[in-house]
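Dear colleague,

Thank you for sharing your sequence with our group. We've completed the structure prediction you requested, and as agreed, I am returning the results in plain text so they can be pasted directly into your records. Please verify that the sequence below matches your submission; if there's any discrepancy, let me know and we will rerun it promptly.
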Amino acid sequence: MSVRRSSGVAPRVLLRWGSCSSGAPAQARAALRCALDQLGYDGEAISDAVLAVSELVANATEHSVGPYEMRLRRTAAEVICEVEDGDPRIPELPGFPVAAPFGPVEEDRGGGLDALCALLSERGRGLHIVQELTKGAWGFTKARRTKAAWVALPLPPGGAACGPVRPGGARGGVRRDDGV
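Please find the predicted structure tokens below.
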């Protein structure tokens, strides 16, 4: 995980939503799946990217203020998916273990119901999931009034990605004028 500055390459907006919008994570998954398919990604690469970005969308919606925006940006070596929200603060990040984060821990064995509930907790795993799915190729970009969580995807085999697309299959997108 790291903090990156914008490379100056114009991003393509896939989805915008506000604080009162419902179903944003599902809409984001559908838009990203469609865009990555059109860019030449397949199967597991799409599934992993969609799950990782879905976690970032859910975190933004739950912990930050809107408006929100999901966009793609292509560089020479990768496609970067960004999820921007209206809160410039970078969240406190958990420690990422060297070993798999979800394996059984010997000292938690035999701990009774409390240990089992802690192990099965649905909270606090999102960024660990992002870390695992992206192999560490994710982070935050901070601006004056906003931040963007991002994941970097290597170009698909053959480098076929010729540029980000908008939902519905049309090439191109909305260019932002604020320099982010």
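Summary note from our side: The first strand starts at residue 2 and ends at 3.

Kind regards,
the structure core
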